[in-house]
Write a structure and sequence with these properties.
47% of the residues are buried. The chain has 18 helices and 45 strands.
C-alpha cells in the first residue's frame, strides 16, 4: 500500500462528515434528538479500519470482517456460504465497509434486539428471479466452493447457543471452549451413526464398542473427557433431553451408568452439533460435569434434500443402506416447518474365532492339555458357533422443527421419533453343557448340536417440545416451553430355551424326547424398560447498558418403569431356592437373556424443581465476566446449589485468554436407584475359564441393600476448572489450548459382585435371595481428571482451490483418589478391594484411551472435493481375569466427492483404509483349546472365540468400510 492512501481515505471521510452536517443544517432540524443522531452517526463513522478482503463466499468474508472490526455479527453459516461478497480494500468506517462488502450480494444487514444480523436481501432475490437467474452467484458454472448445495466443510461455526443463555456471541468471545460441527462435517466422516461421527472428528468424545454384553451391544456408552456416559448433558435445541432406559449393568465402559442414546436422532434432521467442553451444572443442572452436547435441528424453509448411502465392510458383511429426505416449508411468511424422514438398515458383522473346546460329551483330556475326540459328531462339529461383532438392526426416524410467528411473539415446536429393531447374539450353549442344554431320556441333549440365543430389542424413542417466546420493547425476552421425552426398550429372547422347564418335562415322563424337542418354546418376552422426562421451563432475559441478565425456573418429572416378562422367561421350574426337585438341576429362566419377574417390576417417579440466574458483563474493555447460580431440589435426596464464574480477556488481536471455575453435581439416575434384576453372567474363574453365575442387582432401597448397610444414594459433587487461550495468528490460522481439571466426590458406582464366603451375614442374605453374588449401587469413590484439549485450523488457497487443515487433540487422565464404604455392619467387615475390585477401578481409569488425536484435511477444486481424515487412538488397558494393554492405532479415512451439477453430487469413500484392528486378545478368552483325532490329526486349534477384547474397543474391530453415496438438493 502507498503511504499516502490512508490520508486520501481520511480526507474523503472528512468531506462525507461535512456533507451530513450541512444536510442537517440545510433542513433546519432543530430537534436536539435528531441533531444528536446526525452527530453521533458521524462520530461512529470517524473510526476507520484498513481492509483487504478479496471476493469470496460471504461466510468467510464476514468472519474476517468481524475479526478486523472486533464486532459481533450474527449470521447463519448455512445461508451465507451460498453468496459471494465484494472485494473490500482501503480505509472505511464500519458502516461504509459493511455496505460496500454486501452491495448487490443478495445479503443485507439489520439490527434486531440490539444485535447486528445478516439476512437475505428480499429485493435482490426478487430481482434475480425476474431476470430468470436461478442463483445469486455471479458464475454460471456450478462450483463446489460456490453452490447452494452446502458442500464446503466447516468444522467450527461462529455462532453458539450452548454455553450462555444471554446474547449470542462468536465462539472466540465465549469464556469456555465450544466446538461446533456442521452437518456437512458429520457427513464427511462416512459413518452411519451419530455417535461414530462425533468420535471421528471430536477427540474428547469416545464411543466404545463391546461384544456379548446384552443391551450395551446395541446402545453404546458415549463419553466426554474420559468420564461416564451419565456425566455429559445432552440438549436438543437447547432443551434437556431424556436418557435411555438402559442401565449398563455388564462389564463395559460406563458400567453402572445410563446415558442418552445419540443414535436415535437422524443426521438428516441435524443442522449442527455444539460441544461445550466445560462443566455447566450451574447453568443447566444435573449431568453437565464433563460438558454439554447440544444438537441443533434444521430450521430452513423451502429448501430440501435427499440422501442415500450404501456400504459394507471389507470382509463382505455389515451391509448398510441409508436413505433420508429433508424438506422445509414456509409458515406465515416468516415461519418455517422443517421435517425429516430417515431409514437405516445394517446387517450384522462377525469377527469371532473358532470354537476350540469340546462340544459333546465323549472327549478325553490328554497329558499335553489337548483333547482327544472319539465321537464322530465332535470331529465334524461346526466351529463357527459364536457371532461376535455389530448387531443387525433396522431404524426408522422422523423429525420436525417448526416456528410460527404470531402477533405477540412466536410459537415453536420440535419432535423426534425413532424405532430401532436390533438382533444381537449371546453366548453359545453347546451340547455338553447340561445346565443350559439338559440331556433327555435318549441320552442326547435337548438341542443336539447346541444353540445360540439371540436378544431381540425394540427401542422406541420419542420427544416433543412446544414453546412460546416473545421480545418486549425494553430489551427483555421471555421463553416458555414444555418438553416431553420417553425411551422404551422391549426385550425378547429368541432361539433359546428355559433349561429348568426342559428338566421338568423330562422328569415327568409324559412326553417323549422328540415331543419335548418339537413342542419346547424357543422364545419369550424378557422384560420392558421405560424412562420418561417431562420439563416445564421459563427463561427471562434482559439486556442492560453494562450487562445482560437471565433468570429462569424449571420443573421436571422423571418416571422409570420395569415391566416383567413372560413366566417362561424368568421362572425356575425344577427347583425352589436351594432345593432341587430332581436329581439333575438345570438353570432357570430363558438362556442368553433371562427375563425379570413380577417381584422385580418397577414403577417409580420423582419431582425436581430449579431456579437459576446467569449474568454477563463487560465492565472493563476487552474483558468479559460471566456468572451463573443454580438451585435444584429433588424430592428424594434433597437440594443442591452450584455456582460458576468465567472470564474472557482479549489481550490483543493475537491472544485471548479464557478461564472458568464452577461447582457441579449429578443426581442419582432413576436406574441406579430402582433397577433390580437377577441375570446369568459369564465370568473368568481362577483357572481362566468362563463360568456362569447368577448375579443379583439390588435396588438402593431393597432389604438386602439395607441389611448390608448401603445408605440412600446422594448426588455426585464436582469442581471444574479450565484455563485456555486462543491464538489468532492470521485470519486463516488459529490455535486454541484448554487445560481442564475435574474433581468428583461421592461418585456413584456399582460394587463388585459380592459372593458367598466373604462374611457369614452376606452368605445368608445371598442364599435367601437365591443368587451366587450381589451387586449394589453406592456413593463409593472420589476421582480426579486432568486433561488438555488442542485445536488448530488453517485455511489457504492452493492450486486454484481451497485447502482446509484442522488438527485436534485430547489428553486426559482419570485417577480414583479414594475408595470408601459407609459405616455399616457388613460392608465394613470386608476389605475395600472386595467391595471395589481391581476391574471396577480399571474401568474408570484405564478402559478408554488416555489420548486422542485427529488431522482432517479438505481440498476443494471446482466441482471436486477430497476429505482426508487421520485418527490416532492412544493406548488403553483392560483388566479381565488378567491385564492387557492395547497399543495405539492410527485409522485413515478418505472421501472423494463430485458436484455433478447444482443439485446432484455423489461421493465414494473408505473408512479405516488400511484395515487396522486392535491388538489380538490374550486375556479372558473363551472356548480355547486343541482337539485331535485318534491318529493325532488336528481337528481344531484355537486361542478362543474372542479374537479381540469383548469388553472395550474404542474404534471397534470390523476393519475397512467402503461406501458410496448420492445427494440431491431441491427447492
Amino acid at each position: 500500500m502507498l503511504f499516502w492512501q490512508p490520508y486520501v481515505s481520511g480526507i474523503k471521510q472528512y468531506f462525507n462528515t461535512m456533507k451530513t452536517f450541512l444536510f442537517c443544517k440545510k433542513n433546519k432540524i432543530a430537534s436536539i434528538a435528531i441533531l444528536w443522531l446526525c452527530i453521533s452517526n458521524n462520530s461512529f463513522a470517524e473510526k476507520l479500519f484498513l481492509f483487504d478482503i478479496q471476493q469470496q463466499p460471504a461466510d468467510q468474508a464476514l468472519i474476517t470482517f468481524a475479526k478486523k472490526t472486533d464486532k459481533t455479527i450474527i449470521f447463519s453459516y448455512e445461508l451465507t456460504r451460498n453468496y459471494q461478497t465484494n472485494t473490500l480494500k482501503g480505509y472505511y468506517s464500519f458502516t461504509q465497509a459493511l455496505r460496500k462488502l454486501l452491495r448487490n450480494s443478495g445479503l443485507t444487514s439489520v439490527i434486531k434486539n440490539n444485535q447486528l444480523q445478516i439476512i437475505e436481501d428480499s429485493s435482490f432475490i426478487n430481482l434475480q428471479s425476474e431476470s430468470n437467474n436461478i442463483s445469486p452467484l455471479p458464475s454460471k458454472t456450478p462450483s463446489l466452493q460456490r453452490t447452494r448445495t452446502h458442500q464446503q466443510q466447516e468444522h467450527i461455526e461462529k455462532i453458539a447457543i450452548v454455553g450462555s443463555r444471554n446474547i449470542a456471541r462468536s465462539l472466540q468471545e465465549l469464556p469456555v471452549p465450544v466446538d461446533i460441527l456442521s452437518q456437512q462435517s458429520l457427513k464427511n466422516t462416512g459413518e452411519f451413526e451419530v455417535g461414530k461421527m462425533l468420535q471421528s472428528i471430536a477427540p474428547s468424545f469416545n464411543f466404545a464398542s463391546s461384544s456379548i454384553s446384552d443391551g450395551t451391544d446395541v446402545l453404546k456408552p458415549a463419553t466426554l473427557r474420559g468420564l461416564g456416559p451419565d456425566q455429559t448433558l445432552i440438549l436438543v435445541n437447547g432443551k434437556r433431553r431424556h436418557h435411555a432406559s438402559l442401565l449398563h449393568i455388564n462389564t463395559s465402559v460406563g458400567r453402572g451408568t445410563a446415558g442418552a442414546d445419540l443414535n436415535t436422532i437422524p443426521l438428516s434432521a441435524i443442522k449442527r452439533i455444539e460441544i461445550l467442553r466445560d462443566g455447566a451444572a450451574a447453568q443447566y443442572g444435573s449431568d453437565a460435569i464433563a460438558g454439554v452436547i447440544n444438537i441443533v435441528l434444521k430450521d430452513s424453509a423451502n429448501t430440501g434434500s435427499f440422501h442415500s448411502t450404501i456400504g459394507q465392510y471389507q470382509q463382505g458383511d455389515g451391509n448398510t443402506f441409508d436413505v433420508s429426505i429433508n424438506k422445509g416449508f414456509t409458515l406465515n411468511e416468516h415461519g418455517f416447518f422443517n421435517t425429516s424422514l430417515s431409514y437405516l438398515t445394517h446387517q450384522a458383522t462377525d469377527r469371532s474365532g473358532l470354537h476350540g473346546s469340546c462340544q459333546y460329551q465323549d472327549c478325553l483330556k490328554l497329558e499335553n492339555g489337548d483333547y482327544l475326540a472319539t465321537d464322530q459328531k465332535e470331529k465334524t462339529a461346526n466351529r463357527n458357533t459364536f457371532k461376535i461383532g455389530d448387531p443387525a438392526y433396522q431404524q426408522l426416524s422422523l423429525a420436525y422443527n417448526a416456528n410460527y410467528p404470531i402477533k405477540t411473539g412466536e410459537l415453536y415446536s420440535f419432535a423426534l421419533y425413532s424405532k430401532r429393531r436390533n438382533n444381537s447374539a449371546a453366548f453359545f450353549r453347546h451340547s455338553a453343557n447340561e445346565l443350559a442344554n439338559p440331556i433327555l431320556q435318549d441320552n442326547i441333549a435337548v438341542r443336539p448340536n447346541g444353540y445360540l440365543p439371540y436378544i431381540h430389542s425394540d427401542i422406541t424413542d420419542t420427544s416433543f417440545n412446544l414453546g412460546f417466546k416473545t421480545e418486549l420493547s425494553n430489551d427483555t425476552a421471555i421463553d416458555i416451553s414444555f418438553t416431553q421425552g420417553e425411551n422404551t426398550i422391549d426385550y425378547r429372547t429368541k432361539n433359546s430355551l428355559n433349561a429348568s422347564y426342559v428338566n421338568l418335562l423330562n422328569s415327568q415322563g409324559l412326553l417323549s424326547p422328540e415331543q419335548i424337542r418339537s413342542q419346547l418354546p424357543q422364545s419369550a418376552d424378557a422384560y420392558s424398560l421405560s424412562l420418561s422426562l417431562q420439563t416445564l421451563n421459563i427463561d427471562v432475559r434482559r439486556i442492560y447498558e453494562y450487562f445482560s441478565l437471565a433468570i429462569g425456573a424449571e420443573i421436571r418429572k422423571d418416571k422409570y418403569q420395569v415391566s416383567p416378562g413372560e413366566k417362561y422367561s424368568y421362572f425356575d421350574y425344577d427347583s425352589h431356592g436351594d432345593s432341587a426337585y430332581f436329581d439333575h438341576n438345570a438353570l432357570g429362566g430363558i438362556q442368553g437373556f433371562p427375563g425379570i419377574s413380577t417381584n422385580s417390576s418397577v414403577h417409580e417417579s420423582r419431582q425436581v424443581s430449579s431456579l437459576y440466574l446467569e449474568l454477563n458483563s463487560e465492565l472493563i474493555e476487552n474483558i468479559t465476566f460471566d456468572g451463573a447460580l443454580r438451585y435444584d431440589n429433588y424430592n428424594d435426596f434433597g437440594d443442591t446449589s452450584n455456582i460458576k464464574l468465567a472470564t474472557h480477556w482479549r489481550l490483543n488481536e493475537l491472544i485471548t485468554l479464557r478461564s472458568s471455575i464452577s461447582t457441579g453435581f449429578r443426581a442419582p439416575s432413576m436406574q441406579q436407584l430402582y433397577f433390580n434384576n437377577i441375570s446369568t453372567q459369564f465370568i473368568v474363574d481362577d483357572d481362566e475359564h468362563f463360568t456362569a453365575e447368577q448375579i443379583g442387582t439390588f435396588r438402593n432401597d431393597s432389604p438386602l441393600a439395607s441389611l448390608i448397610g448401603v445408605p440412600q444414594l446422594t448426588e455426585e459433587k464436582s469442581t471444574n476448572f479450565t484455563f485456555g487461550s486462543v491464538f489468532n495468528f492470521t485470519d486463516k490460522f488459529n490455535v486454541t489450548l484448554d487445560y481442564y481439571a475435574i474433581d468428583i466426590d461421592d461418585r456413584i458406582v456399582i460394587s463388585n459382585k459380592l459372593g458367598v464366603g466373604l462374611s457369614t451375614e452376606l452368605t445368608e442374605l445371598l442364599q435367601q435371595n437365591h443368587v451366587d453374588k450381589a451387586q449394589v449401587f453406592l456413593n463409593g469413590v472420589n476421582t480426579e481428571t486432568r486433561g488438555l484439549d488442542v485445536i488448530a485450523s488453517w485455511k489457504t488457497p492452493l492450486f486454484n482451490g481451497n485447502f482446509d487443515l484442522t488438527f485436534a487433540g485430547n489428553i486426559t487422565d482419570t485417577d480414583v483418589s479414594k475408595r470408601y464404604v459407609p459405616n455399616s455392619t457388613v460392608l465394613n467387615a470386608l476389605s475395600i478391594e472386595q467391595v471395589f475390585s481391581e476391574q471396577d477401578i480399571s474401568i474408570i481409569e484405564e478402559w478408554q484411551p488416555k489420548n486422542r488425536m485427529s488431522v482432517n484435511a479438505t481440498y476443494l477444486l471446482n466441482n471436486w472435493s477430497v476429505n482426508f481424515n487421520v485418527n490416532r487412538y492412544g493406548k488403553y488397558t483392560i483388566t479381565d481375569g488378567g491385564k492387557q494393554t492395547y497399543g495405539a492405532e492410527i485409522l485413515t479415512d478418505i472421501q472423494v466427492k463430485h458436484q455433478f451439477n447444482r443439485q446432484i453430487s455423489w461421493y465414494v469413500g473408505v473408512n479405516n483404509l488400511f484395515n487396522v484392528t486392535p491388538d489380538k486378545n490374550t486375556i479372558a478368552n473363551s472356548h480355547a483349546g486343541t482337539i485331535v483325532d485318534e491318529q493325532g490329526n488336528e481337528i481344531v486349534s484355537s486361542p478362543g472365540v474372542f479374537k479381540y477384547s469383548r469388553r472395550s474397543t474404542p474404534f471397534g474391530f470390523n476393519g475397512s468400510y467402503l461406501y458410496l453415496g448420492l445427494n440431491y438438493y431441491f427447492e
